[in-house]
Amino acid sequence: MRILVLGGTAFLSHATAAEAARRGHDVVCAARGTSGSVPEGARLVVWDRDLPVPPAELLEEPFDAVVDVARHPSRVRSAVAAFPGAHWVFVSTINVYPDESTPGLTPATSALREALHDDVDLGVDPEAYGPMKVACESIVRHGTSGAMVVRPGLIVGPGDPTGRFTYWPARLADAATGEPVLAPGSADDSVQVIDVRDLATWIVDSVEGGRTGDFDGVGPVTPIGELLAAVAAGVGAEPSWTWVGQDVLAAEGVEPWSGPGSLPLWLPRPSYDGMLAHDPTPSFAAGLVTRPVEETARDTLTWLRATPDAVVSGMTRERETELLSRTAQTP
């Protein structure tokens, strides 16, 4: 197949292009080429998507499929206009759903946010991300001959530019046996991650099979205590977990989710009980297969050690030690 990956130089789009090339497909990556290189076996065609008309080189031969990860409606609109006859896989996000508190939702049971059809700078309005993706989904559905929409949750693994999950393999790899490690909230809180390589594999499977419809790109729903134990096992650590409740964390000014001073993967409850607890059953039935978290953690650590400038979000060890000394409570 001749596959156009819009992107292909970073994280999910790079992993998707790499998987497609590994299978022997003719893979073209269209990107500015400033955020990295395309994988071996793929070919880069430079396209700044702020320019609505793609380079003539992309229009010489038809593509069988297009994979797009964009968030700007104008860029998706231009690409759909240029390649309407291809089968599309559009990578959206679970942020299209307004209900973040109800566990077990699926694309069939979830409402969508109101679409935002204009391009918005997320530095000015970060809440525009989900609504813009809703608009992008609609453009793809109505402008192509067939499309699959994939809505990932938290994508993790080697190459992660956010550093959220990455905090945990990095932290635990340095933990001595029996060392207290600060864990956020309750061990029973649900979390949900998907390895970037598993998502990329499923996307390429779906391209090959011409799959259509809306699906959540999510892994199994797992108590955070089990997930962190799996991360520890994957990096060969045996820490002593010290769970600190969310009220204490909030009072101490600890940020959830990501960023400096945060405890990644922690989300306030019950407001976010559903954000990392989507029902993955429809996606598994459509062929999604996920690997053990232990493997993801091990490979993420290997990548981190080989990539000195990789982003690792979260609080410092000094801040963790301070919090443990003042707030630690074992349930």
Please tag this protein with its features.
single chain; alpha/beta; Rossmann fold; 7-stranded parallel beta sheet; 33% helix; globular
Structure write-up:
- This protein has 331 residues and is α/β, with parallel strands linked by helices.
- It has 2 domains: 2-152, NAD(P)-binding Rossmann-like Domain (Rossmann fold, 3-Layer(aba) Sandwich); 167-192 and 221-277 and 291-327, no CATH class.
- Helix content is 33%, strand content 19%.
- A 7-stranded parallel sheet has the order 3-2-1-4-5-6-11, with helices on both faces. A two-stranded parallel sheet has the order 7-10. Strands 8-13 form a two-stranded parallel ribbon.
- The longest helix is centred in the middle third of the chain and has 15 residues, at 129-143.
- The N and C termini lie far apart (55 Å).
Short description:
This protein is of the alpha/beta class and 331 residues long. 33% of the residues lie in helices and 19% in strands. It has two domains: 2-152, 3-Layer(aba) Sandwich (Rossmann fold), CATH 3.40.50.720; 167-192 and 221-277 and 291-327, no CATH class.
